[in-house]
Amino acid sequence: MVEHIHFYYTNDFHSYFSQWSRVASFMKGKKIKHRLKEESCWLIDIGDHLDRVHPITEASMGKANVQVLNDVGYDMVTFGNNEGITLSHDDFYHLYDDADFEVVCANLQNRAGDNPNWLNDYVQIQSIGGVRIGVIGLTVAFNDFYHLLHWHVSSPYEVLEKHLEILSEKVDVIVLLSHLGINWDRKIASRFPKIDVIIGGHTHHLFKEGEYVGNTLLTAAGKNCFYVGEVHFEWDHKQQKLVKKEAVATDITEYPKDLITEQSLFTLQKQSEDILNKEVVYLDESILVRWFKHTKIMQQLTDSALNWTKAEGAMLNAGLLLDDFPAGAVTYADVHRICPHPINLCVVSITGRNLMNVIQTTLKREFTELKLKGFGFRGEILGKMIFSNITFEKTRNTDGGFIISDVWIHGKPLEQNKTYQIATADSFTFGRLIPEIAQSETKVYYLPEFLRDVLSKTLMDNYGI
Q: Residue 448: is the preceding peptide bond cis (ω within 30°)?
């Protein structure tokens, strides 16, 4: 007899709630279908389900995301960096207290006490026909952030070497829920052939059909749940082995919405508005925000970053603020709407010579007009760089750009070989946008406060009564 076993999964939803009722409709339909056929079916999420860019998530600190997963009937999840490092230690510790599903992640440890009760290294499930399946989870090790929040994430290799040998003796099939990214997934598949399927995420890659590395099947379904992933097994009970593995990603952009989920999201939206509708400051007149000009509010915010971190200088891009502040009561909802990014402040150590190169880079048109996607930035374009405690002379060159001639820190001439502590948005510490910052060997991140928390204080300090 051949038994059919099914997994349906989402990954990197990022609180894109306008798509969730389609996900709900699809998932509920699959559960009903397989129940009627008496086939085993599990619903799984691979992490970064929450994103504090959305007011529903911001107001509930992710608890609403757990609620909607409960409502659809999810069975297992692992978590990503948006769960683990954008919440305070306490909020993350209690995030899944009310979950009706299993939370699986083998490489997270609490450095401030016992692990949460909801945390499992792996779980063992069993199909209707008795096939034993082990599900293990892993998340990406952003320990520069996790350690500041009193968590530690171990190496995936270390954890898999610890658990796989034991798990393989207990189960017939091994599934890895991986919020590590495509490169890690491929390396793990090559190194640990006992894993039958790796369901991936984090790097937002999309496999419309699965990819094999050796005998391990890899799959992932992109970002924001425009696709839902499917994994299908065929187990031959006579041969006592898997005879077929299949992975596909299904486009659900035109799928009908689930009405009950739409009503639930409407209620959650109203609740979030009530929570966030608290006054931060009252403005007698509006505050203008301009992406390509120096504005008073961006200078005040950059000055606040300097004071918040006690750095020697600070720099923030004007595109971090998305809209003007209207006259009248400014609420937390307004601050969240205008500065929605899950971005923290960071102080980097940088030489005077490299700082001159950074300033030169930020004056270029291709920098200020860059439409950045990712690294926590949720805006449109980077915009003009604003500086605090850093001044410089610039002259226009023949191609319309600028050349830096002299730089001063706190009124003193910049020393080329001296190391300075400069505060900026942590988005510049990743990737290759500003190599001199990303490659700094010393970075100090300021958690758990986001940049919008600094913005709220800036408004209260400068415009409060």
A: yes
Angle between helices 296-309 and 451-463 (to 10 degrees): 110
What are the structure tokens assigned to 157, written together?
């290799």
d(CA 110, CA 291): 41
Contact 141, 155 (CB under 8 A): yes
Measure the CA–CA gap between 56 and 108, rounded to whole angstroms: 26
> Which structure tokens are listed for 83?
């769960």
Structure confidence at residue 376 as a pLDDT band (50, 70, 90):
confident
Q: How far apart are CA 235 and CA 74, in angstroms?
A: 23
Of 338, 362, 348, 289, which Cα lies nearest the Cα of 451?
A: 338
What domains, with CATH codes, occur in the chain? Answer: 2-272 (3.60.21.10), 278-463 (3.90.780.10)
DSSP 194: T
Residue type, 331: T
Q: Which two tokens stand for residue 316?
A: 């923030």
* pTM of structure: 0.92
Q: How far is CA 97 from CA 117, 261, 308, in A?
A: 8, 22, 33
And the tokens for 42? 């599990």
First-residue to last-residue Cα distance in the chain: 76
Phi, psi of 110 (to 5 degrees): -85, 125
Q: Please tell me the chain's helix, strand, coil percentages from 3-state DSSP, rounded to the nearest 5.
A: 35, 30, 35
CB 453 within 8 Å of CB 461:
no
Spatial separation of the C-alpha atoms in residues 423 and 306, rounded to whole Å = 6
| Residue 40 reports pLDDT greater than 90 | yes
Q: Which residues contact 253 (CB under 8 A, 6 or more apart)?
A: 19, 22, 226
Query: Nearest 5°: phi and psi at 23?
Result: -60, -45
**pLDDT tens, position by position, 282-309:** 999 999 999 999 999 999 999 999 999 9
CB 378 within 8 A of CB 53: yes
What's the rounded Cα separation, in Å, for the pair 65 and 272? 12
